[in-house]
Structures are given as structure tokens and as C-alpha cells.
Amino acid sequence: MTRRLICLTSIFALTSGAALADMNFNRIASFATPQNMAEGEDRSRETSPEIIAATADGMTLVYTDSPLEVIGMVDITDPANPAPLGNVALEGEPTSVSVVGRRAYVGVNTSESYTEPSGHLAVIDIDSKEQVGRCDIGGQPDSIAVDDAGSFIAIAIENERDEDLGDGRTGQMPAGELLMIDLADNMAQCDTLRRADLTGLAEVSPEDPEPEFVDINGAGEVVVSLQENNHMVVVARDGSIASHFSAGAVDLAAVDTAEERALTFDDTLSAVVREPDAVKWLDDDHFVTANEGDMDGGSRGFTIFRKDGTVIYESGLAFEYAVAEIGHYPERRSGNKGVEPESIEIATFGETPMIFVGSERGSVVGVYDATDPARPELLQLLPSGIGPEGYVAIPGRNLLISANEVDLIEDGGVRAHVMIFEYQDAPASYPHLTSAGIQQPNGTPVGWGAISGMVADGAGMIYAVNDSFYGMQPTIFTIDPSQTPARIVDYTRVTRAGFPAQKLDMEGIALDGEGGFWVASEGRTDRVIPHAIYHVSAEGEIEQEIGLPPELMAVERRFGFEGITKVGNVLWMAVQREWGDDPENHAKLVAYDLESEEWGAVHYPKAAPDTGWVGLSEIVAHGEFIYVVERDNQIGDAAVTKKIYRIPAAEMVPAPLGGALPVVSKEEVRDLIPDLLSTGGYVLDKVEGLAIFEDGSAWVSTDNDGVDDHSGETMFFSIGTVASPS
Questions:
Q1: Partners of residue 344 on adjacent β-strands
Q2: Do the Cβ atoms of 643 and 634 come closer than 8 Å?
Q3: What does the CA dihedral 553, 557, 558, 560 come to, rounded to 10 degrees?
Q4: Which of 8, 89, 507, 661 is most buried (most C-beta within 10 Å)?
């Protein structure tokens, strides 16, 4: 039997009790770019919004989509409800776009090979969606930019190298260059094309500059990043070189360089070249670079330069550390370029000049107050889609837009998105959880991610475990949910004989009543991770391991325990999905009596999946009921089942294993999909944590998969107080 349970309150973690005193950016909408595909078009094709621009009135967005060879358009007249305006086909791969009036200027790559690059500048009328102009540019374009007056356009002709040729380094011909074309009557004047020679400037490969990104200041000067050459060039409007200099290098101490499934921040890198990607003028004398890196480096931060080459600010690891504190650090990129800052946007909101720094791998946007360019102040970190590539700020409408290029259609994952943020007189709605305020012994952040099972204590704290993604650093986190955002205030590493415990997949945690914990490990036979229960001391040492009995080991059991709770002397574990001896759409709730050491189980009736599978991911005892989280493995619009149910405790009478098991009834407590949509994003897959305090107040968390093919976003929120049916 399934009934709807109405909760008495619904108070979200990030807004409860907060004063509306400060202006903050909050995400208000997400637009999945497959929505722009025409009726009947194959929506299983990859889309990828990369560079994005807006019309002067801020009502229409235009973005490049290279896999589809189109530009896409979005109506944001109502920014909270973006509407598709369709795609415009191009005669090649779009690499960048700028908008002047109602016309989009698009760099289009038509190269047949690395040695025979070609491309053109296409002029698209936004209203008619027709190409109204075209200039041949004789090479492969990358970034383009238009000056504020709409009088000329700058185009970086990259002529990129073949990374599979030889040693994959620069020095491959033909060389790239910078082009400039005048605009008149909002039309490119192709006959005004002039070329700025960028060869002979950099030390790395002076013959092969490979310009990457361009921007134009109020004086008509073009700044160009030569990423692989680790060089910056400022070019006057007439094509002469105003200044040029090496982007330089930095030393990084206490950095994570090993992809060892742990967040350690204990290594040192010396003389790491910045290799900037995006660059934007902050004013006529200063510009900001995102130091993503490529061939030889990537310093994991951003830098503010004077146009004469003087460094006035270097972020070092500060940006990366801030990303780690909110659970967005991409551990599997530690050995490469960490959070990979790739994008920069500059705009003034109110009277505050701001820098927006996008982390490609952390899928997060840093918002900085640049009132003092020598001391930018981090104001916020905003959750983006996967792989933010481009931004456009619309200060006149208090909007910031991100284009997120990663489309996981081939892996059954989330589609690529454009996301819309509004500058509001409201509290920041993200992050939901942070470790800011505590450090590891070496003074570095307590990084975290892949939060799984949770449990509440009687003192207002929640304990949460990470899963096997951090197999070399199994941890119990202590969370104070009374703060906004909720704070990780302590952490306990789980150990065996004093060393990090390996072969664990912690998916559930319960209090033992004596200061320690019971932990459920899901287990993976193919990874030699046992299905088991562990007793862990308050200090984190494993004191006892309880393996599955022969009756359970004998059946097909790919899916293990996803939660644990303690009722008297009995531990109850939720099994994620059916085992070989279970009826269809039924999973076991397994019991272990700590005194008699006897095992038993009941059957739980799961929803039949529309697509994919439905399983259990948490179990919590509270009062006269046992609460479970039941979810499908779907994301975004495909998600159907993300719910909390409860079972009468009186029905939880385990039968001996090996025979027929009783089937319990369930009662719906809450549909979590509205909660998962409450911050303007798409529905996340893994609702995995539920904690209920003695007064019935309940908290829910999601697992961010360690920021691996995931936006890194963790939701941690209150659903109010669970109550009796009305």
C-alpha cells in the first residue's frame, strides 16, 4: 500500500533564518541544449554549447555548438523560463561568437587538415536566421571579439597543432596570426582585413604562436593569449605590437598532484608555466587570464596583469582550495591541471566590478570583487553544468549566463546545459555544504565529495561517510546543519591498525550508542571489496568486521548494502537492488542481531522503472517507522522516482534466510524532485543520504560521484519535520 504523507514544514538549508541584506547570484534556470533541435531531429546526437553571447537588450542568447555545426539561440525574455529559438546551420564548425545589434558574428572552422587550415567569418541575422555576410579568413579561427563601439572585430587564427604528430609540440606550420576586420552599418567589411604577425615574439615556439583567446579594451587594443607559448601580446588597432611578454611561471606548494583516490594537497610543483587560455580586459590598463594550461603547464588559478606585463595579482592555489572546500575538487585531474580555470568574464554589477572565473573540471564559477585589482575578493562560488566553457554577463538585467559544454548522452548521463544566474537581493543558495573553517594538519583544506550514508545524533550533528571513490581516504565527516551553509566541522579518517582502511565502500552509517559507529560497505566482487558491516571506534579504527553469512553469499549479489540503521540490538541494512533469489522489483532489507548473531530479512516492494533501474539508497529508523530513500538512476527530465518512503516498524519482523520473506508495506513521505529542482538546476541522480533527528527534523544529501562525469554539485537540505499522515 502506498499513501502520500504531508510534511508539516519545508525549510531549506540555505535560506532558513537568513536575512535578505546582501546581493548574491543565484541560479534561476537551466536550459538543456537538445531543446533547440528541430522536431524529428535525432536528439541522441551530442550537443555542446561552448562560447555564448547576448544581444544588447539582453533578451536573446546565442551560443556555438560545434558537434552539430550550428549556433543555438535562446529566448530569455523571462530568464527563469528560457525558451528555445532553434539552431542555425553553418558550413563548418563554429568556434566563437560575438553579437552586435541583431547580428551574430561567428568564427567557422572549415579546415580539412592541420596542414591546410581554413575558415571564415559568418554574419548571421538573428531574426531571420539567415547568413547575410561572409569573409574568408584563410585559416582556422578560435576566439573572436568585437570592440564596445561595434566598429571592428578581432579574430585569433590559431591553426592548431596536431597533438598526435611527432612529440605533439608546437612548431607545426602554418603559423597562426591575429586578424582584424572593420564593421560598418553592422556588417563586416571584408576588404578591410588586416593581419598582425605574432611570430618571433615568444621563446617557446616563436615561429608558431597559436593564438588562443582575444579581447578588446576601450582604447581599441587587442590582448591575445598564446597559450602553448605561454606568452601574452597586446596589439594596437593598426596591427602594430604595443607590448608582449611571457606569462611567466609560479611555484605551487601544498598541491594535490596524485590521482590516488584521496584529497591530500601535500606535494610541491616548481616553476609551473601559467599557459593562459581565456583573457579579458578588466579596464584599459589591466587584464585577467585563466591559467588552464595545455602543453607544459597550467597553474590552476588566475592572474591579473598590467598591459606592460607587471603581475599585480596571482591567485596561486587559493581558487583551487576554495573549490575543494565546497566539494567540487576533481581528484581524477590531480595529476594533470587540477580544477583547470579556463574561462573569464568581466562585468560591473551595481557599482562593483567583478571577475567571473570558470573551473572547467570543477564545474564551478568563482565570483570576485575586483574593486581593488591587486586584491580581488572571492564573493561566491556558483554551481554550473559540467565543463563550463563560456560566460556572458548582462548587468542591465542582473544576469550571468554559463555555457557548459559536456554532453554525456553516450554514457546515459546529463545533457549539456546553458545555465542562468540572477543577481538578487537574497541569500546565496549555494553551496549547501562547505568545509571552510577547518584544515588538515598541513594547513590545507579538508576536501570532500561522494557523500553517501548519514546519521543524526542527539547533539545536533550529522555524521556522513564518503564512498569508494575516495578508497584511499575513507572518512566520517561531522556536519553542523544549523549553520548556513551547513558546515563540516570535523572529520575522522577510517583506519585499520592505524593506516587508511582499504577495500571499503562505505554507503551507510549508524551510531552504536557508545560513541562509535556501525558502517555498511556495499562491496564490489570485481574490485575485491567485501560486502560487510564494520564496527568503527570514535577515533575511526575498525574494531570488528562482520561478513555476510553463507545463505547470502550463495546468491547472486552484485548490489550491496546502501544504508544501515540500528533498532535496539538489531542492525538493518537496505540492499540497493534485487539479488538472484528476489522477486522482480523487490529488494531485501537485511537484519543482523548483534546479540544472537542471527541474520534475517524482509522484502521491500520497489517501483517498477520506466527507464534504467530503481533501488534503495538509505535506511533510517525513527519513532514507529523505518524510512528509506528509493530512487531511480535517471537524471534531469528522465528522473521519475526520487522519494522517501516509510515502513511501519511493527512490520519489520525478519524471517530466516533461505525461505519465503514477508513483504512490508510502504507509505510515501516526500517526493524529492521538487527539492532537487529548487536551485534552478536539473534533477541530480544520486539521493543517497537521509538523517533524522529525535524531533523528526530530516536532512537529505546527494552523492556527487567525486566530480567524475558530474557537475560536482552536492545538495544538502532540510525537508522539515516528518510527521503523521493528515
A1: 357
A2: no
A3: -90
A4: 507
Distance CA 119, CA 599 (A): 69
pLDDT > 50? residue 295: yes
Q: What is the mean pLDDT of residues 547-568?
A: 90
Element (H, E) at 297: none
| pLDDT tens sequence across 412-460 | 899 999 999 999 999 999 999 999 999 999 999 999 999 999 999 999 9
| Nearest alpha-carbon partner for 630 in 638, 621, 622, 619 | 619
From start to end of 140-285, where are the E strands? 141-146, 152-157, 177-182, 194-196, 213-216, 222-226, 231-235, 241-246, 249-255, 267-273, 279-281
From the number of C-beta atoms within 10 Å of its C-beta (0-12, 13-18, 19+), residue 625 rates as buried
Q: How do strand 352-359 and strand 177-182 relate by DSSP bridges?
A: unpaired
Q: What is the dihedral of CA 13, 14, 17, 19, to 10 degrees?
A: 180
pLDDT tens digits for range 705-720:
999 999 999 999 999 9
Residue 444, Cβ neighbours under 10 Å: how many? 19
Could you say which DSSP state residue 550 is in?
H
Query: Among all chains, which residue has been given the C-alpha cell 567485501?
Result: 530
Q: What is the pLDDT of residue 20?
A: 37
- Amino acid identity at 106: V
57-59-64 Cα angle (round to 5): 110
**What is the spatial distance between Cα 67 and Cα 34, in angstroms, rounded to a whole number?**
12
* Cell numbers describing residue 98: 560575438
Residue 334 and residue 267 in contact, taking contact as beta carbons nearer than 8 Å? no
* Sign for the pseudo-dihedral over CA of 227, 228, 234, 240: negative
How many residues are given for the chain?
726
Q: Which fold has domain 434-721?
A: Neuraminidase (2.120.10)
Instruction: Quick: pLDDT tens for 54-103.
Output: 999 999 999 999 999 999 999 999 999 999 999 999 999 999 999 999 99
Please report, to the nearest 10 degrees, the dihedral formed by the alpha carbons of residues 533, 539, 543, 547 taken in order: 10
* Half-sphere exposure (Cβ direction) of 341: Cα atoms closer than 13 Å: 32
Cα separation, 181 vs 106, whole angstroms = 13
* Cis? peptide before 353, omega within 30° of 0: no
Grid cell digits, residue 678: 529548487
pLDDT in tens, 650-708: 999 999 998 999 999 999 999 999 999 999 999 999 999 999 999 999 999 999 999 99
Give the C-alpha separation, 700 to 688, whole Å: 8
Q: How far is CA 489 from CA 102, 320, 442, 453, 457, in A?
A: 52, 20, 17, 17, 14
Place of cell 519482523: 653
**CA-angle at 401, arms to 365 and 233, nearest 5°:** 70
| Of the candidates 448, 439, 503, the residue with the CA atom closest to the CA atom of residue 472 | 503
User: Does residue 361 sit in helix, strand or coil?
Assistant: coil
Give, in degrees to the nearest 5, the angle at Cα 643 between 563 and 29: 115
CB-based contacts of 78: which residues, under 8 Å, 6+ apart?
A: none
Encode burial over 290-310: b for 16+ CB neighbours within 10 A, e otherwise: bbbbbbebbbbbbbbbebeee
Cα–Cα distance between 162 and 112 in angstroms, integer? 13
